[in-house]
Design a protein that fits this description.
Layout (H helix, E strand, L loop, with lengths): L2 H25 L17 E2 L5 E3 L5 E3 L7 E7 L7 H15 L5 E7 L7 H10 L8 E4 L4 H10 L7 E2 L12 E2 L4 E4 L4 E6 L6 H20 L9
């Protein structure tokens, strides 16, 4: 047998051996404890106050209605020129995935309650495919100051500010507000803020996937517990 054939045979055997070892390692690889899905979801803060108002049906309601639930919460302005539509779409995606789970709820807080009355919220919800039977609290009927303070001090959202008339990008550009979704566990603790409003489609998909995965993890964890900060 020629040396070339011998060397070729040895190379093939070595390659097959290496591939077999790689395949076995990957096939039987244990979960990586440092992978994101195995890292604890941090506890950022605890909600200690309530926000009372009215729901989309005009009935008295408050944020306490979601207590004991895994809740995804965000601001809502039905005429928002900045990105509320994308945020609402992400919330609707959560509804589609987890809406049948008894421990899941959504909450949308009117950032401009004087403009988004119960009737306006109700019409908007219907136009966006939200049903009255959905586990979704649409809350208004409070003052701007009270909801802005609640979201800042209790939910850890960035402060909301009125947009000066000279800085408005459109006739509906009344205020600058946080466009992140807040994830809350069963113990009324804030576990994360998710910037689903991204101009880059890949970044938006990544953040939405993280929100979905973290929501699932909290729903699967009956204790929803990690060490407090």
């Amino acid at each position: 047998m020629s040396p070339l054939k011998i060397y070729s045979g040895v190379a093939i055997i070595a390659a097959l051996t290496a591939w077999g070892g790689w395949s076995a390692r990957n096939r039987f690889r244990l979960p990586d404890p440092y992978a994101p899905e195995h890292q604890p979801i941090p506890v950022k803060s605890a909600i200690t106050a309530d926000l009372a108002g009215t729901d989309a049906a005009g009935q008295p309601a408050s944020f306490a209605a979601v207590k004991g639930k895994v809740c995804a919460c965000s601001y809502l302005f039905t005429r928002c020129p900045h990105g509320c539509a994308i945020v609402f779409g992400a919330m609707r995606e959560l509804r589609d995935r987890f809406g049948s789970h008894p421990d899941f709820h959504l909450a949308s807080l009117a950032v401009l309650p004087d403009m988004d009355s119960p009737g306006v919220l109700r019409e908007f919800a219907v136009s966006q495919g939200v049903n009255t039977s959905d586990p979704w609290l649409l809350l208004t009927g409070f003052t701007r100051a009270s909801v802005w303070q609640f979201t800042e001090t209790q939910l850890g959202m960035t402060p909301t500010r009125e947009t000066p008339a000279g800085e408005r990008l459109s006739s509906c550009d009344y205020c600058e507000h946080d466009l992140r979704i807040v994830l809350i566990d069963r113990q009324s603790r804030v576990r994360g803020h998710y910037a689903v409003m991204q101009t880059n489609e890949k970044d938006r998909a990544f953040m939405l996937e993280k929100l979905i995965n973290d929501t699932r993890r909290l729903l699967e964890d009956k204790d929803s517990s990690t060490a407090a900060p």
